[in-house]
Design a protein that fits this description.
Layout lengths: L1 H5 L1 H20 L9 H23 L7 H25 L5 H25 L10
Length: 131
């Protein structure tokens, strides 16, 4: 299992699934229904993007898993989430304060899961060429 989590395919599949979930939300108009679809997609999409970025940074030898790396990944996700919510506000598709806060909470939670995964999987061999 650890070998799968270190490979590129896992992150490509996770990113692909996140993209499909987002497309499904637009195609089937799921974003503003009374479901948890929006929250799940925010959590999963952020997990996908941040874990892929974290894996790329570690395998490129740029950064090593650490508490600072963990905080950096989560902070990056929060910044990206805020920028996304600002974009939604600019184009007029934002759902209100509760929706925005819930989206940012799910973005943060997804980033925490991603940072935990990356720090756990690559803790013993940062930058050792596992691609």
């Amino acid at each position: 299992m650890l070998r799968v989590l270190k490979g590129r395919l896992f992150y490509a599949v996770v990113l692909g699934l996140a993209a499909l979930a987002n497309v499904a939300g637009y195609v089937f108009s799921l974003w503003h229904d009374e479901t948890v679809f929006d929250e799940i997609v925010h959590l999963f999409s952020t997990f996908a993007v941040i874990s892929a970025i974290g894996k790329a940074a570690v395998t490129a030898g740029r950064l090593a898993p650490s508490a600072t790396f963990f905080i950096s990944l989560v902070a990056l996700a929060v910044v990206l989430g805020v920028l996304w919510e600002a974009f939604e506000w600019l184009i007029g598709i934002i759902g209100g304060r509760h929706d925005t806060l819930m989206d940012l909470a799910m973005d943060t939670l997804g980033a925490v899961f991603a940072a935990l995964l990356i720090n756990g999987v690559f803790a013993n061999n940062a930058g050792s060429g596992h691609r």
